[in-house]
Amino acid sequence: MISFQLKRTLRALTTNYVRQFANQPPTTSIISNDTEQPIELPPYTEEQRRLILDVINGNGIDQLLRYDITKARANKLHNWKARNGPLRELSDILYVEGFGLKVATKFYKSLLEPAPSTQSSVKTQKAPRTAPFITPALDEQQRQGIMSSVGVRIGVTSVSWARLEIPDTKHSPCVLSHWQHHEINDKKLHLAELVRRCLYVAHQIPQADCYIMENPQMAQPSSNPGSIDQQNVNIQKAQVTSMLSYALMARIAPGESRTNLFYLRRFLTARLFNHLVGTERVSSEDTILGMLRTYYNMEEQLDHEEQINLHNQVQFPSNLRTMYSKAERYQRELLSQAFLLNLAFLRLVVLQDPASIACVSRSSKKLPSHQELE
Questions:
Q1: Where do the coiled-coil regions begin and end (predicted)?
Q2: Are both 116 and 139 inside the same structural domain?
Q3: Is the pTM of this model over 0.70?
Q4: How far is CA 289 from CA 166, 283, 292, 325, 350, in A?
Q5: pLDDT in tens, 324-354
Q6: Least C-beta-crowded within 10 Å: which of 47, 106, 135, 272?
Q7: For 247-259, how does the pLDDT look when each residue is reduced to its tens digit (9 = 90+)?
Q8: The domain containing residue 338 runs over which residues?
Q9: Are residues 108 and 193 located together in one domain of the fold?
Q10: Pick from 279, 269, 266, 314: which is nearest to 293 by CA?
């Protein structure tokens, strides 16, 4: 009997509580799960309220991304408007997934600021990823002081080099001052004889502010090292590279801490001038012939009303053009590689040409236009 009366009492209390809760007026505040307190947006004037709602309801995803909002939240906001219609109150955005009080306040603040310009959006774009082009690194002060450089191409039995001079103004092309190919020998030499010939070659290489070589291939263990003759060839090439590197670095004045010898990353020149098919290099002679035919390499130069930026181009003196045309085909290829190695260093490192850097950067999809470069 007592148990039955207790159940009736509890049921009556529960019914009265539900009725009392149902008769309370509904609240318009949104409750936070963390604080159990109503969360409210900052106070806005009627003009600010209309401005915020007009921007949100009248713009698509691309336009909203100009403000302080992520692409994911912009997509969620767009989908919510498609299902529920435009926002009528500022607090409606809190019903959209991903928009809390802090995010909404920050977003509304950016909407009330002046519309971002195209220039500011360009500045926020990520720069293309570019790995270091040379080893060792080159500091800014030394880079600005470089006015001449020599590219040295070392083969198994020969050495080729090309010297370029940088003009004072960007309206003049660089000048090719020296271009030479020297045969060492076509057979394996004794180390003493090889040293003597390398010293002679080093004496022939002209003076410059810096010297450029291609980064040599690192020695790796192999289960198939090849024939003894091939091993001797690789050893002799490494010996020539080491001797010439030491001889050129010895040209630094006593007490000077900066280096004058830099190694350009392998295959970088071939990528820049589109001479790489897979991992194989193709002939670079056509590229050189195309440069020789430019108007500033002709005897009678054309008159131009507007000055053109020729800072990253090269002028070939007539005697060097004649030497190149009379050389053997394999010699022309080696001369071309030495020249393009030097030109790649100037464009990528010294002049920092945007089009050249974009061409060899991993994330670049297209070259910038002439208007963008200017």
A1: none
A2: no
A3: no
A4: 21, 12, 5, 9, 24
A5: 999 999 999 999 999 999 999 999 999 988 8
A6: 47
A7: 999 998 887 878 9
A8: 134-219+227-373
A9: no
A10: 314
